[in-house]
Write a structure and sequence with these properties.
alpha+beta, ATP12-like fold, ATP12-like, five-stranded mixed β-sheet, two-stranded antiparallel ribbon, 7 strands, globular, membrane, mitochondrion inner membrane, ATP12_ortho_dom_sf, ATP12_ATP_synth-F1-assembly, transit peptide
């Protein structure tokens, strides 16, 4: 598996290292949006720390100010592991704050403010809509090189998820995609019901990035790496680039951005599901 994918990967460059991670009483409210935006602000704080507040929730402190969401809520996270990761995002900012690259903070804001006012059932239904147009389920009929590439690289992932969850998904060259059995939808629905609201926020974000429930669950279940999931989601684009060439800087930027967002979403899912606290000292110089 991944032999031809690996050749593509080698041709278009090595994977980028995704996440560099390093981590009182006034409130700070920043104008960070819920989606990535190209805004920056001069760094105004020296130290980033975490503290445990009411109900055992963890807070992020910028000097003596507590971080708040765009909706005005105190930014609290359910466990120490996620607090460390969010604090690291703020600590690794240099002279200016690149809000558009702070994906974990954005996901926390989304989970806390819930700007679309949806419940868990609505989030699961929205995520499973992607099954009907899943990236790995739609197959081309030509050119034959791409047909073979999709079969060789996507079929093993489909077989894995069908065996893993005892479901039927299949693939189709119809623009409508495969006809997903209701039993398959029900199985995935019940599986996603086991996720908490925070984890669903992260999972839906990953599914939106990859346009694929199959690849997202493969990555969350650690069957696929971030790099593999992203390359598989871009298989047709990579094939076309191999045939016709590309604008190198634009291709690389899009690839690295997608990897960063996907990695952040997967990390958010795992950390928001973390039940135990992390016992280690933060941000030692």
């Amino acid at each position: 598996m991944f032999r031809s994918l690996a050749r593509l990967h080698h041709q278009f460059g090595n994977a980028l290292s995704l996440c560099k991670r390093r981590t009182n009483h006034h409130h700070f409210s920043c104008s960070l949006k819920y989606s990535s935006v190209a805004t920056e602000r001069k760094r105004f704080y020296q130290d980033v720390t975490i503290s445990q507040g009411e109900g055992g929730l963890f807070e992020i402190n910028l000097d003596r100010r507590k971080l708040k969401t765009p909706g005005g809520k105190l930014l609290t996270v359910p466990n120490e592991a996620l607090a460390i990761a969010v604090a690291t995002e703020w600590d690794t900012q240099r002279d200016s704050l690149k809000f558009y690259a702070m994906h974990l903070t954005t996901l926390c804001n989304t989970a806390l403010d819930n700007p679309t006012q949806r419940n868990e059932d609505q989030m699961i239904s929205a995520a499973l809509k992607f099954l009907e147009t899943d990236t790995v389920c739609y197959r081309v009929e030509e050119p034959y090189g791409l047909v073979d590439l999709q079969k060789n690289e996507w079929d093993p992932v489909l077989q894995w998820i069908e065996n893993r969850y005892d479901v039927t998904i299949g693939s189709s060259s119809s623009i409508m995609g495969p006809d997903i059995p209701q039993a398959t939808k029900d199985t995935f629905y019940q599986h996603l019901k086991s996720y908490n609201f925070w984890s669903l926020t992260g999972l839906e974000y990953v599914i939106t990035q990859l346009k694929s429930v199959v690849l997202s669950l493969g990555m969350i279940d650690r069957y696929l790496s971030v790099e593999q999931a992203v390359l598989l989601s871009r298989l047709e684009e990579e094939y076309q680039i191999r045939c016709w060439g590309n604008v190198e800087w634009a291709h690389d930027y899009d690839m690295y951005e997608l990897r960063a967002r996907t990695a952040a979403g997967a990390l958010f899912v795992h950390l928001s599901s973390e039940g135990s606290t992390v016992k280690r000292k933060l941000l030692q110089d």
